[in-house]
Automatic annotation (TrEMBL):
UniProt keyword Oxidoreductase, yes or no: no
UniProt-annotated location(s): Membrane
Native source organism of the sequence: Rotaria socialis
Name listed for the protein in its UniProt record: MARVEL domain-containing protein
Transmembrane intervals: 43-64, 70-93, 105-126, 138-158
Lineage per the UniProt record: Eukaryota, Metazoa, Spiralia, Gnathifera, Rotifera
Length: 173
């Protein structure tokens, strides 16, 4: 499945611009995908970014205990960096530029992996640290992992729905 033949699951159409376009580009032809900015998937990513940043601030601003704070801090920073990269790919329509990469699949696995890492780091810091700021950071990390899990589920359902429609339209014996 390449990016050219798979429809997006957030109901924004992808149209290419003509090389000799003299008028101002229409909303569907613009370089920024405004449909993704207000989609459920993007809102889940924004909420995850907010809670990851809050978890990082909580953990970084309180006294450290037994090295567990470093694990949660690193995981939250890596989640923020990866989710920002994924948002940039979708908002600036870079999926069409790199047709050999299945960004839906990449987004699914990256989001699932980050949710699992964030959940493990948050549970570890809540279990081993009894400093209130560290526990608050762990709670924020768990909430962020729930947002990431919700995003992964939405991606999975969209891919499954797309696979079912492609199978039904491929023809019968």
């Amino acid at each position: 499945m390449s990016a050219h033949n798979t429809p997006s699951n957030y109901k924004a159409t992808i149209q290419t611009q003509s090389a000799h376009h003299t008028e101002a580009p229409t909303e569907a032809e613009s370089r920024i995908d405004k449909g993704y900015l207000i989609s459920v998937r993007a809102i889940l990513k924004y909420a995850c970014l907010l809670f990851c940043f809050t978890a990082f601030i909580c953990v970084a601003s309180t006294p450290q205990c037994s090295g567990n704070h470093v694990f949660l801090s690193v995981v939250t920073v890596l989640v923020v960096i990866m989710q920002i990269c994924i948002i940039v790919v979708y908002v600036f329509r870079l999926r069409t530029k790199f047709s050999g990469i299945d960004f839906e699949l990449l987004d699914f696995f990256a989001t699932s992996y980050e949710a699992l890492n964030l959940l493990i780091a948050s549970i570890a810091i809540i279990n081993y640290c009894r400093v209130p700021g560290q526990m608050a950071g762990g709670a924020m990390g768990i909430i962020a992992s729930l947002f990431l899990s919700g995003d992964a589920v939405i991606i999975f359902w969209a891919q499954r729905k797309e696979t079912n429609t492609n199978t039904q339209h491929s023809g019968t014996r």
